Description:
CATH architecture of the largest domain: 2-Layer Sandwich
Shape: globular
CATH topology of the largest domain: Alpha-Beta Plaits
Number of domains: 2
CATH superfamily of the largest domain: Ribosomal protein S6/Translation elongation factor EF1B
Amino acid sequence: MIYELAIVAKTEATEEQRAAVNTMVAEVVSEFKGEVLLTDDWGNKHFAQATSNGIKTGHYLYLVVSGNGDALKEIERRLKNNELILKKIFVKVGDTKEEGEKFAKTFKSPFSKKFNGSIVDDGDADKDLEKDKKRFARRKACWFAANCITPDWKDPKTYGWLINEFGKINPGRVSGISRKSHRLADAAIKRARNMGLVSHITNTFAE
């Protein structure tokens, strides 16, 4: 199985301590016959919303790994016992190594420094995305299906337009997207909220 793993460490963690986290993940997946396909450091970000104990910033680490359930459990156990770790998330993105390599090769995120970008940018550069989305909403046609785009938790351009000023997700009768796309967007937004990339109460994003 192929998973993306995002980790948020405290900003006071040193470069050596963050490197130790990456090393730990690599050692665990290797022990269970897997491997790390991609590593990325997003740097310090201001959360879209402070945590329950008032922490406002964190340092994001991102990896794509191949491994089984036992590897994930061991990584999660070690991260849970690390007092420098604030948040973590595992998301399955494929079943085979080939799928993982393809995912890693096409990886983009506006939060990344090394792989900065958005899958939305792959379309017509001259297209006015806001007008395009409103046009599909008026027609009650799914913008995601028409543009072959899947909502991605680490790419706000793919779902940010669905969140109103109060942090609520616009229903399909307003946005015009299909039920399937709405479920995927809902899951992406909830993941982004859990990782501090999107606010629960406004339409602001991490910076």
